[in-house]
Specification:
The protein is of the alpha/beta class. About 25% of the residues lie in helices and about 15% in strands. The chain has a six-stranded mixed β-sheet with strand order 4-3-5-6-9-10. A hairpin with a 4-residue loop joins strand 13 and strand 14. About 40% of the residues are buried.
């Protein structure tokens, strides 16, 4: 799994970032922790039903335990077990060791399933968190339990805060030893210390054990409104926000909203478990505009589908959190529904949306997958070997394949990954550093200049 480091070129502008992904060619690691953050406000009933109905497509995409030709693997005899083991060795990426849990966008109320607490199968809310019901490949009824877990109802807060709930969930996944050293390891102004410090002592280990060291972390947020995390009082601190805005005063495409999002992404990068976001949420494009997706493609999904609470910045939080972490953004489009005039949010193809997220998760285990979409012309690959050091990495720069026929690297756009051939293939315990600039800047991502 990659360790992700984002380096500033000049300022706190996340669209001027040099991204550094570090990989180790070590034993295969199939661990991935998947947190669903589901909006439980009063307009979400139909979308929750869509998630439940199409979850099978999602789980089948990355938890397939069949052979390449679709045959189910049996484990009833020694022969069956031998065949299954051989299939595992050939296709390890299809046998992900996942943890999966559900929380809500409600941070106003506490208890089971709220404020980032991964829920049990008991009712939401209550005086305290409960032991999380964690789904895994060993669960007896993954589909049935997930349908129950994601049925979070529609009585939650109307001030949905997906990124804040995700942040609290990560904090609460830390062990007691981490909390004991929080003040020693993080400066007082660090977003990790500020956010995790808001959590009462009694709730600090509500999710202990869910987020595993070395595992990939994926947060899937499903909401029909924008993320009111962007209006959370005091976060980021007002003096830091004002300083960031002044630093970018001459940039017409970078404003207060960008500074807010930068601060929150700094938390997710600093918590020690870099997160990839996959968000299903509205857009703010007018009916005549196309939406720019994370991979540069465009689609016509008019929005916002639920204008109440969906400011430009709040909607943009979900899109850019996905795009800047190398995840997926799936727009919800606006449609008239005569049978339900109070809720006009739909996705064009929810089945395909969840399949795409499942494929994203599957690709996380396949090796050299970059954390964001790169500008291919800026990629530099460095392989740590005996003849070079951190002070002089030049001898270890790996040539691209078109410059080195005996072996080099090349970029695979379809999987957002780097592949190696010939003499350039990393050996066991080699460390690979990949540096690049992200492909899109702010206005490219959203398809038009921003009005702030």
């Amino acid at each position: 799994m990659p360790a992700v480091l984002i380096l500033l070129l000049s300022s706190c502008n996340p669209y001027d970032l040099l991204i550094h992904d570090r990989f180790e060619q070590a034993a295969f690691n199939s661990d991935v922790d998947i947190l669903w953050v589901v909006d439980n406000s009063n307009s979400m009933a139909r979308i929750q039903e869509e998630v439940q109905a199409n979850f099978g497509a999602f789980i089948d995409t990355f938890a397939n335990v069949g052979t390449d030709d679709g045959t189910e693997l049996d484990y009833n005899t020694i022969t069956d077990a031998t065949v299954a083991w051989a299939e595992f060795l050939r296709n390890q990426e299809r046998f992900l060791n996942y943890n999966m849990g559900v929380t809500t966008t409600n941070v106003d109320d506490g208890g089971n399933g709220n404020q980032g607490n991964i829920r049990s199968l008991a009712s939401l809310g209550g005086p305290s968190c409960e032991s999380p019901h964690v789904l895994s490949p060993q669960s007896e009824d993954v589909l049935g339990d997930f349908v129950d877990l994601v049925d979070v109802g529609v009585a939650g807060s109307g001030s949905e805060k997906g990124l804040m709930a995700s942040a609290f969930s990560l904090c609460k996944g830390k062990p007691a030893s981490w909390w004991d050293s929080l003040e020693d390891n993080f400066d007082v102004d660090d977003p990790v210390r500020r956010l995790c410090g808001l959590i009462p002592a009694a709730d600090r280990t509500c999710n202990d054990g869910f987020f595993r060291e070395g595992a990939a972390s994926v947060v899937i947020i499903v909401s029909d409104e924008g993320d009111e995390t962007e209006i959370q009082a005091g976060l980021p601190p007002q003096d830091e926000l004002e300083r960031c805005v002044l630093d970018h005063g001459e940039d017409p495409f970078f404003g207060e909203c960008d500074c807010k999002l930068s601060w929150w992404l700094e938390f997710f990068n600093g918590i020690g478990q870099p997160v990839i976001f996959a968000t299903i949420a509205p857009t703010y494009q007018a009916f005549s505009d196309d939406v720019a997706l994370c991979d540069g493609a465009t689609a016509n999904y008019p929005g916002p589908c639920n204008a109440f609470g969906s400011s430009i910045c709040s909607v943009d939080f979900y899109q850019e959190a996905a795009c800047l972490t190398g995840g997926l953004f799936t727009p919800i489009e606006e449609k008239d529904d005569p049978e339900n005039p109070q809720s006009t949010c739909n996705t064009a193809d929810f089945d395909q949306a969840l399949r795409s997220i499942g494929a994203l998760i599957s690709n996380l285990s396949r090796g050299w997958v970059l954390s964001a979409i790169p500008d291919p012309e800026t990629i530099v690959v460095v392989k740590t070997e005996g003849e070079c050091s951190e002070d002089d990495p030049a001898p270890c720069v790996v040539s691209p394949l078109d410059e080195s026929p005996s072996g080099g690297w090349f970029y695979r756009p379809a999987t957002r990954s780097i592949a190696f051939t010939g003499e350039a293939v990393p050996q066991y315990d080699d460390v690979i550093d990949i540096y690049y600039l992200p492909q899109h800047d702010r206005h490219d991502q959203v398809g038009r200049p921003l009005p702030f």
